[in-house]
């Protein structure tokens, strides 16, 4: 033991002199190592893996990644390491190490016994949660304080919509600029990381949100607000557009005709879904008249304003197929009975029924894949989000499906992986701490048994996940999933550990 302690000190001393990258990251290596030694911080070395670090650099075989506490302390050739007595070694030989994955469109993290472990078991170490409410703000705090093991959470405000809305509580409805500004101030006071905007915002309310967000340096993102041209919303600062709503119309030769029709259609408070259904159908029809010149204008605008498209193919795929398609998905065993029932009830609201509708929706989904491929080639930033908690979109698991779809759309496996690591971190303003494998970054890592650059499906072959420096090996991940399954099959209120008064929040 004494010998090991001495060697650990030697190792930390070596790290202090070798850790030039730490200095670059603003950490003084010597102090850092001394602090680590004094605190008895664990040193973990992922040894021998090929590092695929989320940048466009080449993969680095036979690497070593040294972790101290919750940070990456050193990355370099395995051959350069001194003796490792006193460090925990994770065998990376023959494996690929990638940054922890981000799902940038999620719901339901406050299902504390189900969602956080499902994310981590699938290598998702960060999420952008798209609807803020009291329960998930509490969950975010527990994870941040280390009281609950889970992905780091970037959390939306309450959804801000117009006086007519598809959504019930806890959505925030604003009728004018004054109420819109108040909603933004409330969002800031609640510690929201961004403001989520929605379909039916009136024009003046939207403009007030953009202005108040600018004043408070709070980003805003969300759905296409139908009363605003998408490029005007992008110019005003909307950071992302979710689900591709409006993108088909904005890239169509029938754009002006369809927008005029929507402008002339009121939001009906008695049947709020009618407008949404019309817009969705016009989006579908718009794909039949895709116009490259119109599309180029739209893509150039999004790129210039830095607004991202968030296709959420995982959910879009589900709603393009007959409702019974997913009824026997093996992953349903991880969900409690109320969620399964909600999914079964809700999907028929969206899913096609007749053979003609099924063929139409199938073709529409293919058109969405093509549109995202064109957007990507035009330089528009693409996000990897799933919309999990919506029917048959599973926390963690479905991000792997989303990566498949991004590759099908035309992103290379490298760019798809970048979308959910480095690009996601940059989008969320966390480029300094997240998204790549480099000294000084947070130790969020996924060790894979196969090469994701050769086949993106390799992201499913997880050997080890590291979340904020904590190592979860395969046996631990399997145990976590077994615990999720057990919790899901306990009585509903106990399984969800969320106030039983609350309905399952869907949509959004
Ligand atoms: Zn959503
Ligand atoms: Zn949404």
Describe this structure as you would to a colleague.
The protein has 508 residues and is of the alpha/beta class. Helices cover 42% and strands 17% of the residues. The protein contains 20 helices and 16 strands. Strands 1, 2, 3, 4, 5, 14, 15 and 16 form an eight-stranded mixed sheet that branches. The protein is globular. One zinc ion is lined by residues 223, 242-243, 508.
Features:
alpha/beta, eight-stranded mixed sheet, eight-stranded parallel sheet, binds zinc ion, 508 residues, single chain
Largest sheet: 8 strands, mixed
Binned, the helix content reads: 40-55%
* Cα distance spanning the termini: 55 Å
Number of helices: 20
Class from secondary-structure proportions: alpha/beta
| C-alpha Rg (nearest Å) | 23 Å
Question: Helices, strands, pairings?
Answer:
Layout: H1 2-18, H2 20-24, H3 29-39, E1 43-51, E2 60-68, E3 71-77, E4 88-91, E5 96-99, E6 101-106, H4 115-121, E7 124-129, H5 134-144, E8 152-161, E9 172-173, H6 177-189, E10 194-197, H7 203-216, E11 220-222, H8 230-235, E12 238-242, H9 247-250, H10 255-263, H11 273-287, H12 292-305, E13 308-310, H13 313-318, H14 337-346, H15 355-377, H16 397-409, H17 413-419, H18 422-427, E14 445-448, E15 462-467, E16 470-473, H19 474-488, H20 492-496
The structure holds zinc ion (2 copies).
One zinc ion binds next to loops.
